[in-house]
Design brief:
The complex is a heterodimer of chains A (308) and B (134).
Chain A: H1 2-15, H2 22-48, H3 60-76, H4 85-100, H5 106-120, H6 126-154, H7 161-169, H8 172-178, H9 184-192, H10 207-228, H11 233-247, H12 254-264, H13 272-292, H14 294-297
Helix pairs in contact in A: 2-3, 2-4, 2-5, 2-12, 2-13, 3-4, 4-5, 5-6, 6-10, 7-8, 7-9, 10-11, 11-12, 12-13
Chain B: H1 2-27, E1 47-54, E2 60-61, H2 67-83, H3 90-98, E3 106-116, E4 123-133
Antiparallel strand pairs in B: 1-2, 1-3, 3-4
Helix pairs in contact in B: 2-3
Classes of the chains: A mainly alpha (308), B alpha+beta (134).
Amino acid sequence: MNQLTQRLVVPVSSRLAEPPGPALASNLRAFRFLLLLHVAVQSWGYVVVPIRAAHLAFPPVGAVIVASLLTLCAFSSLTRFGRFAPILALPPLLIRLSWSGLWIPNHTFLVFFCVLLTAVLDPDRDDESVLLLQSLRWLTAMVLFYTGLQKVMHGLWFRGEFLTWMVGRGNDNWRWVFGWLVPEEEVQRLFGLGYGPDTGPYRVQSTALLLLSNLTYVAEMALPVLLVIRRTRVAATLVAILFVFTIQLAPREFMFVLCFTNLLILFLPVGWNRRLAPLIALGYLYLLAAALRPDWFGDFALKAAGRI
Amino acid sequence: MKRRLVIAFVVLLTIWPLAHRAMVAAFNVNPWKLAGWAMFCIPNPKTSTQTYGLTTSGRRIRFEMRPEDQFDLSLYDYRRQILGELAPPPDRLAEQILSRHPELAGVGVVVYQYHLDPETALLRWESEEGAARR
């Protein structure tokens, strides 16, 4: 066990570290602010666009209180009391998670784990800031890797079945992003398939779709490795950000794009979370505004507004 | 101590998706949920839960659902869709509904779920039945 730790864990964890100091602390504080801004905006999303299912309904007043408290935590993280912001954010966040119950989206879990880490580890203490960076980087790489591995293990991406299903059965966004890869007669065939037993097959003759389908999980599993290797890290980070944005064009989970971009930027040389914080914060405000006034911002960002 | 706790937490998060995959295989747990990072791996497995009444002779009949029945049905469907076979058996839902309908001799529940077969790429339906009788 000890040998395994020495051979596997130590080289990886040392590659995920950066020298401690004021630059790292300030970058992690910016990361923490954006993380708390994410949970605040997400909570306002539940206020603006309430959940319809009776057994998932959030108490309206409670939702406003939780969103207000989390907003307060986000902005207090910029003050000299910032260390306490993620700690104070945990109770309202846990209450919100308890309202969601089993339905909690995976992205919300990821954000919660990150808030937990920033609550436990202080970016302004040298020993803890390095561990915080290592943990967050590992979590990011691990999640990206598993999204690819799970596709391999479930077996519906090798011959493009999942994408074919989404072109035929998904909403217009999926058809807009992937429909052009499928011949028109195949699209019409897919539309004609009902939900009856043994309908299908959800496979199409399209080399482009097949390539894209296979490239997706390969990229999801290769990018984390390239993120860990210092020499390829910057390029891998930029490709990963572009990749996550592109694949999210179909489900339109732009809240997640911003959150995951905040995590991926941690792989860039120290300081980029701080530099890009205003831009990412603007992105969150844009999505919140899109939830409030979809007539102003159009349908494009509506799905992304708030919740996920 | 804090360092060890954080490392244990991160290790746990790293192992969890493998356990999650095993739970999906063994209990039909929803891959899209419970932090297994398996969203978009398969079509989100929707369930449809339907009920029917039973006469003393065992004949299936329609009956009027009450709002409480609808709520229980919707809650059961939601739990079943996420927890798969880890959710309570459909008999439990049948018992709940039967307790509100003295005019019925029994209540039956059928849970339908589809999945895309990786071998054939055809849509397959599975169903599980439960019932409660007086």
